[in-house]
Design brief:
This protein is of the alpha/beta class. Helix content is 34%, strand content 22%.
Amino acid sequence: MKISLSPQPLAKLKADLAVAVIDPDGELLDIDDSVLGKALAGAAKAFKRGKYQRELLLHFGDGVPVKALLVFSSSLEKVYELRESVKIFAARSLGHAADFGFSRLAFLLNGRLGVDYVGAVTEGYVLGDYRFDKYLKDKTKRSVSVSLVCPSSSRRKAEGELMRSRIVSEEVNRARDLVNEPGDKIYPKTLAAVAKKIASSGKLGLTIVSGAAALARQGYSGLVAVGKGSIYPPCLIVLRYRPAKKSKRHLALVGKGITFDTGGISIKPSEGMWSMKGDMAGGAAVIAAMAAIAKLEPKTAVTGIVAAAENFPGPDAQRPGDIIVAKNGKSIMVDNTDAEGRLVLTDALARAGEEKATHIVDAATLTGAIVRTLGTSVAGIMGNDPALIRSVIDSGASQGEAYWELPLIEEYREMLKNPYADLNNIGGKLAGAITAGLFLQEFVPEGAKWAHLDIAGPFILEKKWKYFPEGATGFGVKTFVALAESM
């Protein structure tokens, strides 16, 4: 999709479909064409009277600079704040364009505050245009160009917003591709190959520790144990971004990269198991975020760490009752092999300490408990530092990704006790998301500020939501990038 800026007055606009958003509290657009101005004023009155419950599409004949005008009203989208609503409207306009065969769109942002929404509109179009149709015989054919109509006086700011939003949104789509791919196409080695390709830009350093022998030599026992049942060897992927000027803070982004999770010996029910190709969504978010960070060059040092393995019930697979010793010396009894994500994350957290990170944020599709608690629109967050937790929540909120803080209730650590090891890898039937967080906290490097994101709810969709069709969302990428920029 081609997205460009246009300083043209509406009277000289060359577009099939103009898109306008009416917002009583903002000044997003300025109509300098009499016909369009009259139509928009009439639409505004109709929306105010409650005459329309959805957007209004008006068609025109000759003598008007556009074939049609699509009018949205923020008053009809009360669930989200205006920035998020604008993204939804942009994505929805693509459906109208497809219905009527329109290929040239113009989104009107020529009002006093319009330039502030250039990034939101860009994101709505790039994410809304995404389709994973690689394996369909009849693919979606849609060729659309979009002009963002802004005053020439605000062009520099608009260019910056457009560039940043496009970079981040395209990396969100990269993460969606990785999650949407079948499990026989994405396994630890291919995930590492994606990281290698990204690092080849020259702006990221790369280390890959691959195979059980190499991992065992370095003490990464979690990856070794989880990966034993698969024909594909596990690996630890480390991507490093360093700014030109040395930064005091060093942010580590840690991702669970279970490329397919059958549950291992503690095998999952067959219903819905296909979606476990996305159990590497946290790792995909880290890899995609690092690609965006390399292009945007924030002032903070950032290291991306992905613990990648496949959890299968092969003849060499770990068994319930096995005991492993993590890199920090704590022993873990594997009560349930389907609680494997936290085992590989012990290695990734250890590596974050070895990389001397001051702040660590991990993202993982870790528990079904978080989905039952928060549903599919919100991720859980917990950690050891209130300021970091607040920064993550604020970074997500600015990008349309929502988090809800859960407490790490110390007395619940009793649920992780085991007579044969320092820790059990599951905590029982109650408070599963919290006990998983308490488990991870045992492996956070000393002195590091840490937040854990359980993204098991919003990482994939069964039905359309906001500007996403069914499938992967790339959740976490936007938060990670915004957090790195804010630090």
